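Morning, I've got a small favour to ask if you have a moment. I owe you a coffee for this, so here goes:
>
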Amino acid sequence: MSGENPEPFRAGGDNNESAFAYCLDELRREDRDRYLTLLFAPRPTRPALAALYSFNLECARGVTAGGEQPLLGQMRLQWWRDALATRARRAENVGGDAARDNQPVLTLLPEDPAFVAQLSELITAREGDLTGPPFATLDDVVAHACATGGALVTLAAEALGARQVAGARAAGTAYALAGMLRAVPYQLQERGFQGRLCLPEDLLVAHDLAIEDIRLGNKATAVAACMKQVAAAAQRELDDLNAGDAAISPLLHGTLARAYLHRLAGAGYDPYAPDLGLNPLARPLNLLWRSIVRRP
């Protein structure tokens, strides 16, 4: 879908106000980072971004639901795939069950078939966390981050009319990689599952590490060395990031990625460090400053 024609992304009307409020509330509670970034978007585009980010949150919940039984997660993701397909069929006047639109996120998502196809690709990428093999190489990890976080932020930039979206893709990919590193403890547990272990097999072999070493906190130096290599890949994404002609709001994912990578470095790349989060007061101020100087 072309970034030069963002109109299909816009939402309006009284029925959408409650859906927008629902999405904002969900993001405020469970995806505070993206909630803050969308506040720097033009007001008319915020419902579209809220719906897009809430859709991503639902996909993440699907992955979490599949922690103990992948089939449960697959069923949840399939519901969203079917719901999107219904909207696309209705947009092409093929018909479909409008009952699914009672879901607030769907109320705000556009019916444009091209956009729906991109969201379906996001679902497919997230399914890899439930059914895919372990990451074999660092390139595989980066590709997954690009297909999830990178693709999401690219869609957000297009929603704001950006014609050059390479920066958005880089910001989203780096943010996803930083998030995967912070989630390493949850990538090893059945409860609170957040996807496949982001330390790929080739790095584990190179540092003589087994999954059990990471689970038990053994060989801390070797684990940190693996973490650092993935963090370096995220930093490479950020090195080429510039504002360009893209709206600043999606690019602020890059600002957050830098901050999280800085915290990881300060903790010696220990995935079990007690506080890898960001200061709740400093975080919005950092985003504000970066938006003013347009340097994500």
Q: What stands out?
A: The two ends are 25 Å apart (CA to CA). Residues 11-132 form one domain. The longest helix spans residues 70-91.
